[in-house]
Model the fold of this input.
Amino acid sequence: MPLTYPVEFESDVVLRDGSTLRLRPVRPEDEPPLLEFFRGLSPESLYFRFMAVPRIDVHRVKALATVDYENEFAIVGESHRGIVALAGFYRLPSTPDRAEVAFAIADRLQGRGVGTRMLERLADIAATRGVRTFNAYVLGENRRMMEVFLECGFAVQRHVDGGVYHVVLSLERTAEYEERAAERSQHAAVASMKAFFEPRGVAVVGANRARGKIGAEVLHNLKSTGFTGGIYPVNPYASEIEGLRSYPSVASIPGPVDLAVICVPAADVLDAADDCIDKGVRGVLVISSGFGEAGAEGKERERKLLEKIRTAGIRLIGPNCMGILNTDPALNLNATFSQVFPPAGRVAMSTQSGALGVAILDSARRLNIGISSFASIGNKTDVSGNDLLQYWDDDPRTDVILLYLESFGNPKKFSQIARRISRRKPIVAVKSGRSRAGIRAASSHTGALATSDAVVDALCRQAGVIRTNTLDEMFDVAALLANQPLPRGRRVAILSNAGGPGILAADACEANGLELPALSEKTKSALRHFLPEAASVGNPVDMLASAPAEHFRRALDILLADERVDAIMTIFIPPLVTEAEAVARAIVGAAKGASKPIVATFMQIDGAPTVLTPVPCYPFPESAAIALSRVAGFAEWRAREEGVAPALPGINRDAVRAIMLRALARGGGWLTPPEVSSMLGAVGLAAAASRLVTDKDAAVQAAKEIGFPLVMKAISPDIVHKSDAGAVRLGIATPQEAWRTYESFEEHFGVDLSGVLVQEMVTGGVEMFIGALHDASFGPVLACGSGGILVDLLRDSVFRLHPLTDCDAAEMLQEVRGAKLLRGYRGSAPVDEPALREALLRVSALVELCPEIQELDINPIKVLECGGKILDARIRVEKRAGQLSRRVVY
Done:
């Protein structure tokens, strides 16, 4: 019997040239467009697909369009012109874990990465159907198809017979596959963003002469900043605007138009988008508001806009945004309505908020932070921070990336991309929404602990993203990253010409996790050589108010040479005898070419002299200390090993999926204790021996088989925390006591009692907690912390996004305060911490195998001197819902 149409496998993919293509499962009603598609293929393409030039008729096409979505699965590539590609796999009856795969792609799309994208998608779908290997037969002349198979990253075997290659692909997602996929993702994202940041021509739809209106300001900015490409006003009621010829439509523009900026009322945007599609525009930027932010009508308008843009293969920034700019002198692109064009530099910036975008650009100019490019992405309907990150990673003019985030579109993808980029370029982010108002009611420990803000912090730590609390902090950190080297540690020397500010600086450093080391005797001796006797050569160094500029320079050189010092904070209070500008020049001179960062604080009304620009300067020591602390933490992250997801032995994928499918067949929900134990055992997680029984005689028999003493637990779907409900009895020592305990549970819980778990009693060890939660915004989140009743009492838990690497698991245990007990505390014996790390990785592997897991609690897992045993666990599963809106897949 055919399965229901699997809407969850619909997606939009970015191709090699930056255009997009809709991929979706084939439907029986696709017969007419499929017939048209095949009749449009060249004889060569037909020959390569069928190894002959067949007669394409309705019967052949019907067979291709009618699949059961289980043993036969096909997807089509679809654009606004119709179906342009077909690919499918067909399970081999003799070997159910193998399937034959075949492709057909319109001639005009060949060579643009369509085949690779379809292969990736089919492989993902096949994995959910238990298919692990693809077979294909490829004619020797079909070089493009062979390249798809050989370069995809899957392990490939091939042999040739009579001019036909038999290709066998293992669908295991190896490290090589992930690396190749990431490279393809970045290449596609960069190509798609070039339409916005490096356009040959820009059309301003809604341009006009009324300064102060958005269309007029965008056109004025493009012209006044000297954009080097074509500028095309589009207004059917004007022949000339700002000295430029105006066109009645985008389609009527004679030159190339890569980017269209739409500034018309929301009701006219869809028609304007059609005009852009007719022209073949590659990128559309919609500044207009009145979409998803404006109620149900706006949401529907936004949905229609996205559908129109995506099916045409175009990328979209906005709507409800401020625009973009690129300060590259070869382009000088300012497609915003802001009156600010910041200085050129090495910092790229993105914001979702258009209103904040204006303030951010103004702050960058005021603080003299040079910008490479900027984007306001508004409602983030299509292009998101993930696209921008990959473009800026590839941009040689960008060294530092700043993000203001209101939400994450695809947090898992963000984490993967950011983790890779942060190894080369620092990412600083302000994520709004730290309030506890968003904490949801949850039925598990993990759900109650994993607030959105805690998960955001985990994501940032995991990916090496520097999270700041405010925009001011973000700019403070950016100024340091853009101008100074990373510190090798947290040891800070403070140099001041006044004692009070030096003490403030010392307090601020210690409050932010920085250290003030004792200076070496060599350093102190060198300082005493030229400083007054009343000066202090400890740390902080107080040179006294009379210190001239040359003393700042000599002292900085000496402190930079001290191996105990990783960074220097210098503080200047303007006395009557020393010029601030001279001190600034001295600081800049010392910082030039130094391998350690220097930050400055000029505590004067006029602020820092402009000559100090190469050295980040802060109004107060507290700001400098926070910036140094954030950057020191980032340097520590970058110095760590990247980590790998290790291959874990003893994982029975088939057993895990069989349990999952049985649970889903009855509607999902909480698994039974035997199912939980079996599922955990199938991924190599050992649980205490147990039996689920439903009467007193069975309880006594189970107790005898397991052995005394033991534990008995009442089982009911209404019990969340067993100890709170009186559902746990410890130290059951005799068969009679087992009988009485079962009887007491019956009396206490009545008809709500569904059974009793009889379990071995595990003594000694340390109780810990492991959890997993499928967060609606972030996807799978893993947790670890102190276990037992301490989970809720101490809330001593840390989080990471799935999947975990070995380094992630180790870092989680370093951050849990209660993990000190694992290593032996106040005379207690150390236990098997590596076993707990492995348990975390095995839970991550389970979540990978079963994305249907919504909540998982292991509380506690008893970590013993050798290994560990799970004493209690709960798992709730749900069938994955279809996608409500498509996301771009790279």
In short: The radius of gyration is 32 Å.
